[in-house]
Write a structure and sequence with these properties.
InterPro entries: P-loop_NTPase, RapZ-like, RapZ-like_N, RapZ_C. This is RNase adapter RapZ. Keywords: ATP-binding, GTP-binding, Nucleotide-binding. With 287 residues, the chain is α/β, with parallel strands linked by helices. Helices cover 40% and strands 18% of the residues. The protein contains ten helices and nine strands. Strands 2-3-1-4-5 form a five-stranded parallel β-sheet, sandwiched between helices. Helix 2 links the parallel strand 2 and strand 3. Helix 9 crosses helix 10. The chain is globular, with a radius of gyration of 21 Å. The two termini are 33 Å apart. The model has no long low-confidence stretch (mean pLDDT 88).
Length: 287
Amino acid sequence: MRIILITGISGSGKSVGLNALEDAGFFCVDNLPPSLLRALVATRMQDHGENLAVAMDARSADSLSGLPADIRRLKDEGHDVKVLFLSAKTESLIARFSETRRSHPLSHRLRPDQSPNDRPTLTECILHEREMLVTIEGLGHVIDTSGLSANKLRSWIRDLVETDKTPLTLLFESFAFKYGVPLDADMVFDVRVLPNPYYDIALRPMNGRDQPVIAFLDGQPDAAMLLADIRNFVEKWLPSFKQDNRSYLTVAIGCTGGQHRSVYMAEHLAQYFRGAERVVLRHRELD
């Protein structure tokens, strides 16, 4: 059976992700206590189910400790199990909770020495939840949803589902350093050393997929050398990531605004590797 476990920090988009998986044909269960996972899989096997998606988070904190062992057992039984961990920057999470006016799930969990009038703040809840889920975060692929719209997150989830049948998916993502490094990056390359098309008035409104910008950067010897260095580095270490049984490898390429140089580099890298690897291409700031 193909099983996708979607987990992560509250407010990072797990409901959106679960809905995307349901649209992709998965049988979905939300907020399942991890202790019931194997029983659910057994039930779905009896019903001849093929695709199962389960969302679980800090609301089931008491039984999360046994999740890694359960995942290993399911894999030993022949199931294809993948974990998607959704996360976001604290300021993004605070803004989302403020916009929806929802309380954090952990705000209702009182310590024995607490009174109902002494509940933790939203920031305290978020930090505590990160501590609770730190061991789960390392089980799978992290998706940084900071600044992502719901539609874009659904699109990213669909891309991952479509490529999930391959041993490893290579993701190239352009981004702007001024908006922060993606939390889901495994490798980060800084291309701000290259001449910036932004300072050419004619090129400023364009991006790295437009032919005039491509021609500008193609004419820069440093761009060709840096592209070759990044390509060779990824090519050299990719077999090691495959041997480590990684499902996804995210290579993030950053420039100042995420419009020209990083987009150009990510496009060229994706084009180069697409012939031999399963490749997903993202442009965070353009999207």
